């Protein structure tokens, strides 16, 4: 039997680790946990884990963080051995892959950094084969003209490896293993398979319902001032002989904003625009009035009726003739700004759903500045993950002109909608 | 109360539980902390409070939350009409101070669930159901009660709990609850039961229903819940209703025809029923019987 003092010291360290992982742990919770631990001892590990989870974790997300920290902290000897064995196997496998990759790369007429070599080793065999085939195809040329073809092959390799590194950086990889529902929320929207779309839509519905709940609660609170309405109370009191039988309170008038949505529906943006529109349409209290414009090379206004049934949205966009074309943000914004009667004014919030990739960027920048001048507020929802913004010049330019929010996952999209409703 | 003792009492109440649930309940009881239960609608959150009341042999005091719920509906209210009447009756009395004081006595106090739960001589189980439907300011108001086990009535002062109730709060996560409220509670997240647990619940609640039918119902419900095109997942209560309906119709095997006739007991909207019929060849939700009957 271990002394309780030993538990308590460990528990104190454990609480600190939970805090480092972002959980809010008050001294009261540590005190509760110590009471439980002294009572239970440490004989039944699962029971202790359940008990401490009950005390420390206050939401489903926190429960998952707790489980991870607990499993890492209070590790059993058997598990430790298993983990060490797995780690050694993993390292040996990685070393083998590195050696194989080095042998393959030795045949190349170019220099790669160690990071690039590691990324090459981690690439799927299919991708590596594709690069090897490419290299074999140009081998003769490279030998004849090393300067010209050597650089060409190097640039293709470097780009493929960079793409692989970016893929590895993507958020949400591995989340599915923890909790499929949460993993779904944190996965890149562009990675959804066709079969997963109904699930994504049902999740959008449930999250939108949650945001609506928060919003209506906030509105109700804002609407109730708690002040007595003397005039109505006295008038009503006359009906009961001057006794104020029922008291009446003042209420504030609800004020909502006007929203103008500008959605890029060119080929690559279709999926994201559809999800984002579903979100925004589901938020029934987000604005007093909203107008939705769709654009690719041209701009046209989606009628409110067609947006009521989002299941028909894809077909509707295809019929409109803007689907699958290039993106011309400049023309879209210019048309929007020139509209009569004006679509944008100081009471409107312009929400742009686009990945910033457009033809004639200088014209798009000028048009965005004009739209910014006309509208009360401009917010850009970008489906490109924030960690890739630094690689794309058009994103950097647009982000410098207006607030830009990364919305590459359902979770980020929900956060953006929350932000939109709060402003 | 010790874990084994609680398990025994829950067994007596014929409640099906797993070790995690029993441990969480025992710990919340031992620490005297309110228990916040979250989970999808129909997983049995409210049932836990009822079972705890039965297992602990306590009265269940229930407060159903809704939009606009305030202190007057949850805690107390002065009987305004009775006070008015009293003022008019005693208009000519000499001692105005006594009259004023008497107007804010117990006689005119209408006790609501929260006040009732802490003024009770014997400890009760207090169920604050669907707290996510109440306003944020009501949540803030609950904090004093949950942490200090006391409430303040401006006209009458602070009322301290005569007995400490076991508080169960439930939430369907329609909106996130405040951090302050969460911090004061022990937390439990419930998911839909797995096949084994669902079957055990069916057997415990409907002992007269054929075992084979129960197994088929449990399996079909599991498949329906796993079906992503079904939006409103069947709850445990609906599983029980469905099994009872099949039994009442004299059905001994869950055939596609029996399912079509009774689908309304387990799926509650037309789109879901259509999705279920589309999804499975046989329509029984099993997805792998390819049109023939199975048992």
Q: Specify the overall morphology of chain B.
A: elongated
Number of helices of chain A: 19
Sheet with most strands of chain A: 6 strands, mixed
Q: Provide the low-confidence segments of chain B as ranges.
A: 282-295
pLDDT averaged residue by residue of chain A: 76
List keywords for this structure.
heterodimer; A: 423 residues; alpha/beta; Rossmann fold; 19 helices; 8 strands; 10% strand; B: Rossmann fold; 3 domains; two-stranded antiparallel sheet; 14 helices
Structural write-up:
The complex is a heterodimer of chains A (423) and B (295). Chain A has 423 residues and is an alpha/beta fold. Chain A folds into 3 domains: 4-74, no CATH class; 79-169, no CATH class; 257-422, 3-Layer(aba) Sandwich (Rossmann fold), CATH 3.40.50.410. Chain A is 61% helix and 10% strand. Chain A is built from 19 helices and 8 strands. In chain A, strands 5-4-3-6-7-8 form a 6-stranded mixed β-sheet. In chain A, helix 13 packs across helix 19 (410-422). Chain A starts with a helix and ends with a helix. Chain B is an alpha/beta fold and 295 residues long. Chain B folds into 3 domains: 3-71 and 112-190, 3-Layer(aba) Sandwich (Rossmann fold), CATH 3.40.50; 76-110, no CATH class; 195-279. In chain B, strands 2-5-8-1-9 form a 5-stranded parallel β-sheet, with helices on both faces. In chain B, strands 3-4 form a two-stranded antiparallel sheet. In chain B, strands 6-7 form a two-stranded antiparallel ribbon. In chain B, strand 6 and strand 7 (157-160) form a beta hairpin. In chain B, helix 1 (3-12) packs across helix 3 (45-56). Chain B is elongated. Mean pLDDT of chain B is 85; it is low at 282-295. Chain A binds chain B through residues 24, 26, 29, 32, 35-36, 39, 46-47, 50-51, 54-55, 57-60, 62-63, 198-199, 202, 205, 209-210, 213-214, 216-218, 220-221, 243, 245, and chain B through 3, 19-20, 23-24, 27-28, 30-31, 33, 36, 38, 67-68, 80-81, 84, 88, 132, 135-137, 173-176, 179, 182-183, 185-189, 228-229, 231.
């Amino acid at each position: 039997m271990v002394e309780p003092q030993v538990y308590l010291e460990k528990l104190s360290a454990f609480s600190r680790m939970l805090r480092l992982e972002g959980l809010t742990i008050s001294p009261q919770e540590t005190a509760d946990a110590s009471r439980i631990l002294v009572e239970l001892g440490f004989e039944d590990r699962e029971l202790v884990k359940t008990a401490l989870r009950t005390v420390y974790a206050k939401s489903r997300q926190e429960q998952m963080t707790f489980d991870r920290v607990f499993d890492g902290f209070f590790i059993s000897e058997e598990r430790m051995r298993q983990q060490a064995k797995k780690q050694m196997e993993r390292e040996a496998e990685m070393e083998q892959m590195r050696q194989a990759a080095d042998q393959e790369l030795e045949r190349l007429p170019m220099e790669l950094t160690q990071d690039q070599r590691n990324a090459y080793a981690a690439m799927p065999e299919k991708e590596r084969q594709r690069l090897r085939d490419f290299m074999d195809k140009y081998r003769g040329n490279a030998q004849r003209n090393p300067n010209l073809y050597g650089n060409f092959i190097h640039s293709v390799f470097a780009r493929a490896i960079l793409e692989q590194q970016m893929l590895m950086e993507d958020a949400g990889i591995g989340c599915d293993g923890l909790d499929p529902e949460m993993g779904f929320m944190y996965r890149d929207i562009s990675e959804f398979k066709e079969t997963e779309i109904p699930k994504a839509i049902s999740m959008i519905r449930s999250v939108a319902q949650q945001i609506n709940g928060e919003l209506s609660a906030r509105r109700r609170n804002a609407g109730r001032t708690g002040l007595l309405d003397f005039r109505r109370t006295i008038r009503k009191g006359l009906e009961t002989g001057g006794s104020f039988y029922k008291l009446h309170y003042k209420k504030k008038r609800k004020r909502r904003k006007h929203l103008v949505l500008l959605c890029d529906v060119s080929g690559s943006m279709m999926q994201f625009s559809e999800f984002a529109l579903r979100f925004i349409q589901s938020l029934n209290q987000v604005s007093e009035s909203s107008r939705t414009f769709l654009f690719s090379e041209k701009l046209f206004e989606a009628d409110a009726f067609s947006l009521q049934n989002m299941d028909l949205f894809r077909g509707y966009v295809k019929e409109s003739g803007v689907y699958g074309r290039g993106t011309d943000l400049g023309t879209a914004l210019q048309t929007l700004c020139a509209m009569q009667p004006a679509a944008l004014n100081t009471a409107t919030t312009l929400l742009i759903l686009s990945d910033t990739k457009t033809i004639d960027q200088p014209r798009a920048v000028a048009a965005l500045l004009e739209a910014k001048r006309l509208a009360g507020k401009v917010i850009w929802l970008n489906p490109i993950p924030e960690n890739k913004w630094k690689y794309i010049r058009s994103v950097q330019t647009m982000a410098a002109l207006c607030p830009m929010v990364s919305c590459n996952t359902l979770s980020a999209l929900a956060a953006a909608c929350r932000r939109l409703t709060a402003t | 109360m010790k874990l084994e003792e609680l398990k025994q009492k829950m067994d007596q109440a014929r409640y099906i539980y797993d070790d995690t649930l029993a441990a969480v309940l025992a710990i919340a009881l031992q620490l005297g902390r309110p228990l916040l239960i979250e989970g999808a609608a129909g997983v049995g959150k409210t049932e836990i409070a009822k079972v705890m009341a039965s297992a602990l042999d306590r009265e269940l005091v229930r407060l159903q939350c809704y939009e606009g719920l305030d202190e007057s509906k949850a805690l107390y209210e002065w009987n305004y009409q009775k006070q008015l009447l009293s003022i008019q009756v005693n208009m000519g009395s000499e001692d105005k101070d006594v009259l004023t004081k008497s107007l804010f006595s117990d006689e005119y106090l209408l006790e609501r669930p929260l006040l009732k739960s802490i003024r009770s001589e014997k400890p009760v189980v207090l169920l604050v159901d669907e707290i996510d439907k109440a306003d944020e300011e009501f949540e803030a108001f609950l904090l004093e009660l949950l942490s200090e086990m006391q409430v303040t009535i401006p006209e009458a002062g602070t009322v301290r709990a005569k007995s400490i109730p076991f508080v169960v709060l439930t939430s369907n996560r329609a909106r996130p609850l405040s951090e302050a409220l969460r911090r004061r509670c022990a937390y439990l997240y419930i998911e839909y039961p797995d096949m084994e647990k669902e079957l055990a619940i069916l057997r415990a609640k409907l002992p007269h229903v054929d075992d084979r039918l129960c197994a088929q119902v449990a399996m079909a419900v599991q498949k329906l819940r796993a079906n992503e095109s079904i939006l409103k997942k069947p709850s445990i209560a609906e599983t029980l209703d469905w099994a009872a309906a099949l039994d009442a119709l004299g059905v001994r095997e869950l055939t596609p025809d029996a399912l079509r006739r009774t689908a309304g007991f387990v799926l509650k909207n037309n789109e879901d029923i259509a999705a279920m019929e589309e999804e499975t060849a046989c329509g029984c939700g099993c997805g792998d019987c390819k049109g023939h009957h199975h048992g």
